[in-house]
Design brief:
This protein is α/β, with parallel strands linked by helices and about 475 residues long. The longest helix is centred in the first third of the chain and has 21 residues. The protein is about 40% helix and about 20% strand. The protein folds into two domains: about 260 residues, Aldehyde Dehydrogenase, Chain A, domain 1, CATH 3.40.605.10; about 190 residues, Aldehyde Dehydrogenase, Chain A, domain 2. The strands form five sheets. It has a seven-stranded mixed sheet with strand order 14-15-16-13-12-17-18, sandwiched between helices. Strands 9-8-7-10-11-19 form a six-stranded mixed sheet, with helices on both faces. Strands 5-6-20 form a three-stranded antiparallel sheet, with no helix packed on it. It contains 15 helices and 20 strands.
Length: about 475
């Protein structure tokens, strides 16, 4: 039975604890039927200045708030978000397209992240270094200051949760620029934190043109850290801008994840799990498994299991619980995915399944598998960010590792093997920030998440993620004068 759509909320800036409508900007589109369901405001320079001023006031309060008090407020916000899970999930499915079950899981995952960060904020310990007579060396960990955060459209709740959770647990204030296409979840998060008693100015939302907002906030001297999740191309632009102003940055960028399926793996299990990993969020995931490198001895069985599983997948409106895959999030993705498939086939790739848009309205595109993709096909080197899987064969593990490491991306990798020795070798040699063996879960709230090479730097999650929002200060104190 299809779930009834909720009324889409009015999207407004949240500055200094107050909602501000602002000048109307671009429309918000339902990707299932292309209907207009809302609009976002476009922040002006004066509104951005107000957000920075509010964050400065909020930071003065929040940095002096005890970790225990921060913990209570953050966990009350989490309680409210879990209580409001259906509102979050329905609105997320409306503006992003993912199936309602996946939306609910994303809300719970975002809550877990904030909850874990809040608890870890209680343990931001310093240390004392032994010194000579009359000398004490103390290492302090302090909040970096005001954070400018930019979150993507593919995970409207859990991605902002990583940035909000880490920043607030460390004692920072935050100015968040949510995605233009999927703004509702961030708005609901701000409501929950306000209702939980977060002081005004500690969390601020501004909507509008990404280039204008990033240029303004990164250049402002009051902003001390930039955190961005998105494409490698945009990440490099923001990193260059941050470097020009000597601002540290956390960059969680694109990927093109390899999956090495070794000869000793169960091909039927790996093939079925591969489909489940690939269809999540319609493949619009930076850690989505994409390049399947399967040992030649089991490649036929793997491919047969993959295609058999694909035939069971229902695709359609995300509000229908019977559907396991929803539409792509926007027309740009639809056009890009179709162009990549057409290019690969034109250059000699074999189309195993899918490959064509479904219907004429909405952005439905089926899970698509390609074999024998030539190196000069765009998809061989460019992140597809959609429901496309490339299946190829290898004979020697050296070749598979070399292929996996051949691209400039290094966010996530996957492998299937029953050999401890092989698993250990893959852990040592694959050039990725996250490696999952015999499963497709790339990260948890308590584990660090981030990439290497063109997939970025810095970490979100785990103790490593919280550390990115803090600075280290060494204090040397001569407590008595030498005779």
């Amino acid at each position: 039975m299809k779930i009834m759509a909720s009324a889409y909320p009015e999207i407004a800036h949240f500055i200094g604890g107050a909602w501000q409508r602002g000048v109307q900007g671009r429309p918000v589109i339902n990707p299932y039927d292309e209907s207009v369901i809302g609009a976002i405001p476009r922040a002006t320079a004066s509104e951005l200045a107000a957000a920075v001023s509010a964050a400065e006031s909020g930071f003065r309060i929040w940095r002096r708030t005890s970790p225990a008090a921060r913990y209570k407020i953050m966990n009350e916000a989490v309680r409210l978000m879990r209580e409001r899970i259906e509102e979050f999930a329905v609105l997320m499915t409306l503006d992003q397209g993912k199936p309602i079950a996946q939306s609910r899981l994303e809300v719970l995952r975002g809550c877990d992240i904030i909850e874990w960060d809040a608890a870890e904020g209680l343990r931001t310990y310093g240390r004392v270094i032994p010194g000579g007579a009359g000398m004490r060396h103390t290492v302090l960990r302090q909040p970096v200051g005001i954070v400018a955060a930019f979150s993507p459209w593919n995970f409207p709740m859990s991605s902002p949760a990583r940035k909000i959770g880490g920043a607030l647990a460390a004692g920072c204030a935050l100015i968040l620029k949510p995605p233009e296409e999927t703004p509702a979840a961030a708005l609901l998060m701000a409501r929950a934190f306000a209702d939980a008693g977060l002081p005004p100015g500690v969390l601020n939302l501004v909507f509008g043109d990404p280039a204008e907002i990033s240029a303004y906030l990164i250049a402002d001297p009051a902003v001390r850290l930039i955190t961005f999740t998105g494409s490698t191309a945009v990440g490099k632009q923001l990193a260059a801008l941050a470097g020009r102003h000597m601002k540290p940055a956390v960059m969680e960028l694109g990927g093109h994840a390899p999956v090495i399926v070794c000869a000793d793996a169960d091909p039927r299990r790996a093939g079925a799990l591969a489909v489940e990993g690939k269809l999540r969020n319609a493949g619009q995931v930076c850690v989505a498994p994409t390049r399947f490198l399967v040992h030649e001895a089991i490649a036929d069985e793997f491919t047969a299991a993959f295609l058999a599983k694909v035939r069971t997948i229902r695709i359609g409106d995300g509000l229908d619980p019977a559907n396991q895959m929803g539409p792509l999030a926007n027309r740009r993705r639809l056009e890009s995915i179709q162009a990549m498939v057409d290019d690969a086939v034109a250059k000699g790739a074999r189309l195993l399944c899918g490959g064509r848009r479904i219907g004429e309205r909405g952005y439905l595109f089926p899970l698509t598998a390609l074999a024998d993709v030539p190196p000069d096909a765009k998809i061989s080197s460019e992140e597809p960010f959609g429901p496309i899987a490339m299946i190829s064969r290898f004979q020697h593990l050296d070749d598979a590792i070399g292929t996996a490491n051949s691209l400039p991306y290094g966010l996530a990798g996957y492998a299937f093997t029953e050999s401890a020795a092989t698993a250990d070798r893959l852990a040592e040699e694959l050039e990725v920030g996250n490696l999952s063996i015999n499963h497709f879960t790339a990260s948890l709230a308590e584990t660090p998440f981030g990439g290497v090479k063109d997939s970025g730097y810095g970490r979100e999650g785990g103790v490593e993620g919280l550390a990115c929002y803090m600075v280290v200060k060494n204090v040397s104190h001569l407590t008595q004068r030498p005779d």
